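no rush on this but wanted to send it before i forget. what follows is a protein written twice so to speak, once as letters and once as structure tokens for the fold. mainly i need to know what kind of three dimensional shape the backbone takes. thanks a lot i owe you, the record is right below.
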Amino acid sequence: MPEKKSEIRKSYLLNKYVIITPNRTARPRDIKEETVIKRVKSCPFCPNVVNQTNIVDWLPAADSRENWQVLTIKNSFPAVELSNKKAYGQQEVIIETPVHEKQLADLTTSQIAEVIKMYIRRTEAIAKNKKIKYILCFKNQGSKAGASIVHAHSQVFATGLIPPELAEEEKAVKNYRAKTGRCPYCDIIKKEMKGKRKIFADQYAAAFAPFASEYHYEAWIFPKRHLDNITLLNANEIKSLAKILKKILTKMQAMDLSFNYFLHNVVSDRNQHLYLKIQPRDSVWAGVELGSGLVINSVSPEAAAKYLRS
């Protein structure tokens, strides 16, 4: 079988480059990194321990109006605060299940849909503050992804600052629209659904491995309908996103991968196309990535998509 050569790929819209290197997976290694998780006796996210004064919002369990399925609490150690003019913003923790032993992939599709509904509720509530310009719903799972507590949870981070990369993406989308009259991501979805990077699709949502994937087994999930933020999702779209998210996270769980995922919302940008970006963290960026800004990915997105859809 002929040796596969490396290939430099550019991001769809941003001025970012990735070197896809399929042969590097066979390179010798004498270092193995393992994720070690130490469980504590008292978990701050378990129902009988949660500080009741920190509760911001909750969704009841399907079989009970008294017990919660998803809970939002104040972040006890926020990076930004509404009372801090030098680092203005808001940060909350979303506890995805009352069951300590379960991760998001272990939940049912309907339970994952409830987590998405909480993202919607918190985004709607936080966006009422006109000083907030950017809202990020994100999840860290596993020690390599920066998670500090095992109990399944995600966070909402909001600030008056629009991150430079999001501002660059907004400009690129506007330029594409000016030239074509179309949303670039709507065009990207149509193209990727016809090729080898397709993972899943149904009537309402689509998932694929991006052309210039920065991380092994990276996946993006889009609603097919053009929506600029999560609050516009309808019931069918929420269900589809939950279904596809469960499929992908179950595959990542089988590989014991730490991961981050993100849902960006630049409040003032009506041209953005909502999508959820999943980035596994099995590899550590080293000298090339940190020194040059060029990312090396030894798992091609085509191979990643083949595994994730299998």
